[in-house]
């Protein structure tokens, strides 16, 4: 996956230093939408929203972040269609379901509206069938393998692990789970179960407790985002499972950061979602204003562990990581 550290960032820096254009107000102001499969009530997406808003201010454009209260693909598509009807100057969206997005994005492109994908892509078998212009986000499948490999030294041969998924069927989360399972099977000869824990924290704790009771030999829990990590952390803490069941996760938010400090969570993959919101607006703006073609931007970076957690904790609290 290509990184856009050159033209986009240089152009963006020049724009920011110059300040917003005098024409960037009133009827002449450009409007860009970033539409996700979940809204800012999810701590992860609140950071994306922050990036969208900051980019809009820096560029002197109207930047709108939207998403359903909970994972809801039809509602997300309706928001996308409304943005088209409003004649947006550009739209970014997460490809939450490959079958749902080909036609709306094709229609937007027919209308001359630039579209980029953020956060998650369609599965490999659908790759190239959805005509967005670039992808800004983490390679979910490779991230799954990376986190599993980070955990290998702590797991025994033949280990049994569970991947707790809070949005079953979500292509990005399923890709993470696939990567985890492949590494556990190949490198450890182990077994991976997938568990739908739902987005309800209370239900998630109950489902996890029932699973562990039925599978007491479980060596590790992999959660695939904050909505799964937060209830898993509470369960491990409340049930005295620290050191007995290992845990690793994805994304940064205060509860996971504290769990890393407390030794409950071994670490979490940071996909720097602030960049997903910020760079989506930047790339759409550069395309709409200067016809510069968007390019893929890999926001996935390192693994946050007890060794480096203090360096990012303040930024998590501030809403940037």
SSE layout and pairings?
Elements: H1 7-18, E1 31-35, H2 43-59, E2 62-66, H3 73-85, E3 90-93, H4 98-110, E4 115-118, E5 135-137, H5 140-151, E6 160-165, H6 171-188, E7 191-196, H7 201-214, E8 218-223, H8 226-238, E9 246-250, H9 254-261, E10 267-269, H10 273-290, E11 297-298, E12 303-304, H11 309-318
Helix pairs in contact: 2-10, 3-4, 5-6, 7-8, 9-11
Short description:
The chain is of the alpha/beta class and 321 residues long. 46% of the residues lie in helices and 16% in strands.
Describe the model.
By secondary structure, the chain is an alpha/beta fold. The chain has 2 domains: 7-138 and 271-300, Rossmann fold, CATH 3.40.50; 140-269, Rossmann fold, CATH 3.40.50. Helices cover 46% and strands 16% of the residues. The chain has 11 helices and 12 strands. The protein has helices at residues 7-18, 43-59, 73-85, 98-110, 140-151, 171-188, 201-214, 226-238, 254-261, 273-290, 309-318, and strands at 31-35, 62-66, 90-93, 115-118, 135-137, 160-165, 191-196, 218-223, 246-250, 267-269, 297-298, 303-304. Strands 2-1-3-4-5-11 form a 6-stranded parallel β-sheet, with helices on both faces. The two termini are 22 Å apart.
């Amino acid at each position: 996956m290509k990184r856009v550290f050159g033209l986009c960032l240089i152009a963006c820096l020049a724009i920011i230093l110059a300040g917003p254009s005098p024409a960037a107000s009133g009827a002449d102001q450009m409007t860009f939408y970033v539409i996700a499969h979940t809204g800012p009530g999810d701590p992860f997406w609140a950071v994306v929203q922050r990036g969208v808003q900051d980019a809009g201010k820096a560029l002197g454009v109207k930047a709108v972040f939207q998403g359903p209260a909970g994972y809801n693909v039809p509602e997300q598509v309706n928001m996308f269609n409304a943005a088209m009807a409003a004649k947006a100057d550009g739209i970014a969206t997460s490809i939450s379901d490959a079958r749902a997005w080909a036609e709306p994005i094709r229609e937007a492109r027919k209308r001359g509206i630039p579209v980029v994908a953020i956060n998650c892509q369609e599965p490999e078998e659908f790759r190239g069938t959805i005509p967005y212009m670039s992808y800004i986000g983490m390679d979910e499948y490779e991230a799954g393998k990376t986190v599993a490999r980070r955990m290998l030294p702590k797991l025994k041969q033949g280990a049994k692990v569970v991947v707790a998924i809070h949005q079953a069927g979500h292509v990005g989360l399923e890709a993470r789970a696939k990567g985890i399972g492949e590494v556990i099977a190949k490198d450890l000869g182990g077994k991976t179960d997938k568990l739908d824990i739902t987005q309800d924290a209370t239900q998630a704790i109950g489902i996890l407790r029932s699973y562990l009771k039925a599978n007491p030999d479980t060596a590790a829990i992999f959660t695939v985002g904050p909505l799964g990590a937060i209830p898993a952390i509470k369960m491990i803490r409340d049930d005295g499972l620290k050191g007995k069941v290992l845990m690793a996760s994805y994304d940064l938010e205060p509860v996971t950061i504290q769990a890393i400090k407390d030794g409950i969570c071994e670490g979490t993959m940071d996909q720097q979602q602030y960049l997903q919101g910020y760079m989506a607006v930047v790339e759409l703006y550069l395309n709409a204003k200067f016809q510069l073609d968007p390019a893929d931007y890999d926001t996935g970076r390192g693994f946050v562990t007890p060794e480096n957690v203090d360096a990012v904790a303040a930024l998590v609290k501030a809403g940037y990581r």
